[in-house]
Amino acid sequence: MAEALKEVEVLLVEDNPTDAELCIRALKKSNLANKLVWVKDGAEALDFIFAKGAYSERTGMTVPKVILLDLRLPKVDGMEVLRQIKADPRTRTIPVVVLTSSKEDRDVAQSYQLGVNSFISKPVEFDEFAKTVSELGLYWLLMNHPPVAAK
Amino acid sequence: MAEALKEVEVLLVEDNPTDAELCIRALKKSNLANKLVWVKDGAEALDFIFAKGAYSERTGMTVPKVILLDLRLPKVDGMEVLRQIKADPRTRTIPVVVLTSSKEDRDVAQSYQLGVNSFISKPVEFDEFAKTVSELGLYWLLMNHPPVAAK
To answer: Which residues in chain B have their CB less than 8 angstroms from residue A145's CB?
Structure first.
């Protein structure tokens, strides 16, 4: 198994390759993308998080320090991915940041109701988007104390 | 009622005056402390959040964009404050950041189990602490999209 799959720090769930590449580049600039895994739809995200299907070897592996989750996703949408993560005691402590172009009140309210840790609207402007991703990477990877296994 | 009580953006729950003043000064430098309310124990925090006692006039008022919560507090400890906020559907969507000198695994694990949005260990060194508070203020007040009332 690739190293990134063993010791993942960031799970990026994003179907839009332009947005994903921008995120990865912004995190690389701050040296925060060494242990990043990018998945392109909600079904693959759930397989990764719950160590199923192609990711069944991840059973018992370290959990990401943060999941960056788009909402509009093929196969299983982001809201359902969030719901499943936060409904399961094994995974609900993993920090999830919704990173979406949606600013709809319904999406914001529902994300918080489901237990999202933070909700970030993607800035439309390229440089601003890169800056936002870099700052949220610094916050969740360097400042925030990640969850530890309950004793 | 004072303006800050009506339109609070930051609720700082901190019994240590040195730490509280450092937080307020760091947020002021970034112009983020205009709508900050500082309460000094867990009982006052709960009164504020649930609009009880001295804060009963706050019924129906805006909720903070973020609650900065120390864990070691007089009267009601921070973990119990967190538990009550996250157990009540009226308040569970409010972002809560634990800001504590504790790095004990048990505190980290329990905070995430209760649904904390983020856990920050107070840096021991003064300048580093001020920088951390400033950055978390920028993140939660300017970058994060705060919760809205469910439709």
So the answer is: 103, 108, 119-121
What pTM value is reported for the model? 0.94
With a threshold of 0.85, tell me whether the complex ipTM lies above it: yes
Question: DSSP labels for A25-55?
Answer: HHHHHTT--TTEEEE-SHHHHHHHHTT-GGG
The whole-number pLDDT of residue B150 equals: 45
Fold of B10-135: Rossmann fold (3.40.50)
**Partners of residue A120 on adjacent β-strands:** A99
* Partner A contacted by B118 (CB < 8 A): yes
SS3 call for A8: coil
Ordered by start, the domain boundaries in chain A are 10-135
Residues A110-142: b if buried by 16+ CB within 10 A, e if exposed: bbbebbbbbbbbbeeeeeebbebbbbbbbbbbe
